[in-house]
Amino acid sequence: MSFLYRFAVAVTRRQPYLDWANSLGDAVELTVEMSDENRTIYLVPEATAEPDRSEILDEYWEAMFENELSAWIPATDRWPRDRTREMFDEWFDAEVTGTVCDLAPEEPMTQDEVDAIDLEQAVTRCAWCEADLEEGADRIVGFKLASRDRFAALEGRVLPLAIGEDEDRVVLGIVAAEDSDAARRGDDILFRACTARCERALRSAVPKALKRLFRR
Questions:
Q1: How many structural domains comprise the chain?
Q2: Please, are residues 198 and 164 in contact by the beta-carbon 8 Å criterion?
Q3: E strands along the chain, which residues?
Q4: Are residues 98 and 119 in the same domain?
Q5: In terms of domains, do 115 and 166 share one?
Q6: Which residue range is the domain that position 47 belongs to?
Q7: Backbone angle region of 177, left / alpha / beta, with phi > 0 → left and psi within -120 to 50 → alpha
Q8: Within 10 A of 144 (CB to CB), how many other CB atoms are there?
Q9: Do both 92 and 185 map to the same domain?
Q10: What is the pLDDT at residue 27?
Q11: Is pLDDT larger for residue 35 or for residue 79?
Q12: In the sheet where 139-143 sits, what is the strand order?
């Protein structure tokens, strides 16, 4: 166990957030039960002996607000505009605690660490069957994104893509940099496949999954 020199802010989405999310016409309805079960925990620097809730929210409300909106839909043009601290308080409950302990310090903790693990898997395993790839024997399967701007922050990183009608399976693709040769030829997201069979499966499943993703 490792003690972290951080304060924690537990954020729960309130009814105004639910109303906004459900107004977007997504196939999934966000309920109070789902909101209560999926709170977000934010860690902030331990600046004082005891956490001052008002000061913490004054400093970090905007970043938390944007992250909560992005968690439902990445397209910033569909976010509410003119966001304020008062609006944050209406849309979210925020509970602050001053004791944070990591019970599994050997496990990945940061997004960068998780990204590195995902990237290694995307590079070394077939995206479809997850078989280990032999060097030089794999196939690169590329697809064009309908809107690169929505995924600009993921350039060079992995985009997990849910496939199938029930979205119960995930394939890992790498978002190509905008100035890369792949992007210039129209391949914005790249998957590695071990055989022609896996390539065909990806070419069949990925376009459908991307359409569902862009409808959100």
A1: 2
A2: no
A3: 2-4, 6-13, 40-45, 92-97, 100-102, 139-143, 158-163, 169-175, 189-193
A4: no
A5: yes
A6: 2-102
A7: beta
A8: 13
A9: no
A10: 61
A11: 79
A12: 139-143, 189-193, 169-175, 158-163
